[in-house]
Write a structure and sequence with these properties.
The complex is a heterodimer of chains A (572) and B (129). By secondary structure, chain A is α/β, with parallel strands linked by helices. Chain A has a single domain, classed as TIM Barrel. Chain A contains 21 helices and twelve strands. Chain A has helices at residues 4-27, 58-61, 94-106, 124-127, 151-158, 176-189, 218-235, 246-251, 256-276, 281-284, 298-319, 325-328, 348-363, 382-398, 412-434, 438-444, 446-463, 491-506, 509-527, 538-548, 553-564; strands at residues 36-37, 43-44, 84-85, 88-89, 116-121, 166-171, 198-201, 239-240, 242-245, 288-294, 332-336, 367-369. In chain A, helix 7 (218-235) links the parallel strand 7 (198-201) and strand 8. In chain A, helix 3 packs parallel to helix 5 (151-158), helix 13 crosses helix 14 and helix 19 runs parallel beside helix 21. Chain A is globular. Chain B has a single domain, classed as Cobalamin-binding domain (Rossmann fold). In chain B, 43% of the residues lie in helices and 22% in strands. Chain B has a five-stranded parallel β-sheet, with helices on both faces. The longest helix of chain B is centred in the middle third of the chain and has 14 residues, at 65-78. Chain B starts with a strand and ends with a helix. The chains are: A alpha/beta (572), B alpha/beta (129). The A-B interface holds A 124, 127-128, 135-136, 138-140, 143-144, 173, 207, 211-213, 248, 251-253, 339, 342-344, 376-379, 452, 455-456, 459, 463, 472, 485, 488, 569-570, 572 and B 10-17, 20-21, 24, 37, 39-40, 43, 62-68, 70-71, 91, 93, 95, 110-112, 114-116.
Chain lengths: 572, 129
Amino acid sequence: MFDPDTLHKATQAQAQWEADYARVAKRFGGDAAAPLETHSGLPIKPCYFPQDVQNIPGEDIGAPGAYPFTRGNLPAQYQFMRWANQPVIGYGLPEHTRARMDALAAKGMSGYFGQKFYNLVYDLVSHEGLDPDHPAARGRIGQCGMAVYSVRDMERLFDGLELPKMNVVHITYYQVIPGLAQYIAYAERRGVKPAELRGNSMNWYHQSAYVGMSAFPPDQGLKLAVELITYCTRHMPAWNTTNFFCYGVEEAGGTATQEIGLLLAFGVELVQACMKAGLKADEFLPRFGFQIAQANDFFEEIAKIRAFRQVWARTMHERFGAQDPRSMHVRIHTHTSGAVLTAQQPLVNLIRTTIHALGAALAGTQAMEVSSYDEALAIPTEEAATLALRVQQVIGEETNITAVADALGGSYYLESLTARIGAAARELARAVEEQGGYIAAQRSGWIRDEVERSADRWRELVSSGKRKIVGLNCYQTEDEQRAPIFRVDPQVEHTAVERIRQLRAQRDGARWTEAMRKFEEAAQLFKHRTAADLGAGELMSAAIDAARADATTGEMMGVLKRALGWGAPHEH
Amino acid sequence: MPLRVLLTKPTHDCHDRGVRHLARKLRDAGFEVVFTNFLLAQEVVDAAVQEDVDVVGLSSSSGGHMAAFEDLMRGLKAADADDIVVIAGGVIPDEDAKELKSWGVRAVFGPGSSPGDVVTFLNAHVKAA
């Protein structure tokens, strides 16, 4: 990378600096040899030189838009198209969520080329796979998401919007198939074909390896993910089928290396399963998306993203024969970390999220959700959600960082860190394969253990004061500012229950019974299928038929849980 | 006899980093810890009675905690198990914490609390049955 003369001079400069640094360290009573480390625990030095990057092959760095895409997916980064604003929206009844969608759109929330982009989260009842009249739903309806359980609720949410001209991200947990089926059935009523729809499904069965608890055992979850991918590949070419939930690893306490290494390992297993089901790499890989955290270690988080682009591209190309550049791209939805935000001195979170968002922009993200400053307290107020959007707008409009692609590329430190994280991630992915692959490592608890160890280490550092958090373990104040708390209208529960009862009374009962019988049959057949038997999309088609017959989320999830779930007591 | 503590979380609430860390720290501090997810509060009541625990800690970080605690407190009373100490954790606004305490929830450990706070509280306020 450097000619011998440059390297020689740099080596001399480094020797001089080392002596100077040691002198300063001594004066301050420090130890020049004391190791520094990133938040992931990777060793770092107080300064970097050309010789730190001389062994990195030039093609590893390359150019934006060129394989292996370390510097970005496309030749132009933000010069012609900004990242999309994707704040998470969802609370109360569908019409409440719609009001927040419209309010933020009016404030400039914008997708690619000014298109509408809605990142919508379903409520706790839907996530649980229930309907609002279930005994466990009380107190959870419209909380932490929107109370949407049927095609009719989607009418309340989307009517009047031009579906083919917008992107909708459906943030579901395990009710991903009912959610997509209902959206397809809703679009059909509006005269819009599945092929015209744009947006994302989460397909998040893999997340229970490190957070929460799945409605389905890991092997059934993997098959369900393949089923959705297969259906969309055949019928919805513009639909993003799978969101790699890297963010969840970081939020669960995992390191930057674990965040990309574990999801690389999952990618390997998912791609293998899709290929067994008869899909070719270039048919489905372009529709994968990646939700990645941007947390506190500024440079490490940027290096993580650059490293991931590189190792993903190489793995998809070299191992799975992907040829289309889009099959090798890590298309990123940044979610700034919620776990590092504090309930103490909440306005300080605005400063944290601004730093996170700046890092994401410098790393070349495609879309951003910036957490609201009241994240650690409740659902965001409209004021807090607006300020979070303004963070993106200030960075995009006022700083001029959008003029230059990968502006930090070539930094000795960043390039060195990028190479190191990439190597560590590959190493971790290899370790997962040694465990028998991602699904086996999920089943055995190996992945959960790895992530929990990191979380415990982080917590110990915070508890001991070695890792500082302003307002929590340093610079505390007695007179805390109080942030206004957002509350969901208590009437929401009553209305949601009434609506689901009306729906059951008014829908065509015979049609519903027949569609549900067929869905149940498809689910029972699916139970015994292997990945190689998938590909016909029978389960997905039956789910869409059920949604056409106004089946609710709870009813459809009941079918899936009975056939594919853990068994009692989670079959509700 | 070491104190027996049941820690629990709604199944849909994937924010389990804190409660899992707490489970480890309580175990390390000498408590016997049971951890389970739940759908209905009655499942927590049943588990608490079956496991004969001294303490139930319910963690909620996604909202919906008030109904869960209401059902839990009522269920424990109906099972004649209201001598079990109930504590709360997670994302719980101050106003809600006050109301929970008026229902008999003994302590609320919100964001930023440390496992040490919980250990200190249990050692000071709970005696094994």
